[in-house]
Amino acid sequence: MKMAAAFIVSALLICSSFTSCTETPDADCEQFAPAGGNFTVLLPVKLDATDRLMWKRNGENIFRRHGELMILGKVEDVSEDGSLRLRQVTKEMEGTYEAEVYTQDGKSRGMFQNVLCVQDADCEQFAPAGGDFTLHLPVKLDATDRLMWKRNGENILRSHGELMILGKVEDVSEDGSLRLRQVTKKMEGTYEAEVYTRDGISRGTFQNVLCVQDADCEQFAPAGGDFTVLLPVKLDATDRLMWKRNGENIFRRHGELMILGKVEDVSEDGSLRLRQVTKKMEGTYEAEVYTRDGISRGTFQNVLCVQGESIELQVA
Fold first, then answer.
1. What is the three-state SS of 248-288?
2. Domain locations along the chain
3. For a 10 Å CB count at each end of the chain, is N or C smaller?
4. Fold observed for domain 125-215
């Protein structure tokens, strides 16, 4: 599972009709799109109805329109303002996007360029494998509303008021939240809920990336934060303490004598302190405690999983 990452959007590089956009752009990402979701590359100029519009990705034409005449691509590939719509984003969609706008007489109104990077789907919620899980719908559903749920762009449930068109009644709760049963890894992905009034007016599109965690996780630590793996035995001042991660020694102390690690790596009671947790810190943690004479006081084991900070369902 991938950790959550910050989304950074920088200003579009705008080239006027008097300058050239042929210079190779920096490799730095200017916008970030989440893998598996939808994304819009904005056109930073007001488009007139008769304008000619062309979009390129990495120098290759992917959309072209003269006024209302479609030459390349589909009507739904762009919004009313000429912005480019990307659906079910994949890594192959990364690259340099260029928009060229001309008047109906062929005069340039500008060339606009942006470097787009695709990020691995960030886990926003976590479901335990083998259990049941509910993806909440963050809008109050009216009795006559139309509801559609998608997973990775594919329709999995659709209802118009009380009329079920796709899926089963038990697949959703009364408030429109999606019920998942006996969760498996195949259920991971981007979930989208679309809500419309009975007249077809949109009430919102809500998106969430779900990751499925192995059922054997005993503790969960938030990525980027601090976490303590507790030692479930009272430690005497002369005891010998050793901590292992995935079988490898990471801390060892005999009484007050430090052999491996740092004093601040453990608390006064011998619990292991983890700072700025990363995915690499996942695994099986074992604590071994011995008396000063080498007599075992116990071996204690815990399976730790690292997860991104869970957040509420977001408006797409």
1. EEEEEEECCEEEECCHHHECCCCCEEECCCCHHHCEEEEEE
2. 13-119, 125-215, 219-307
3. C
4. Immunoglobulin-like (2.60.40)
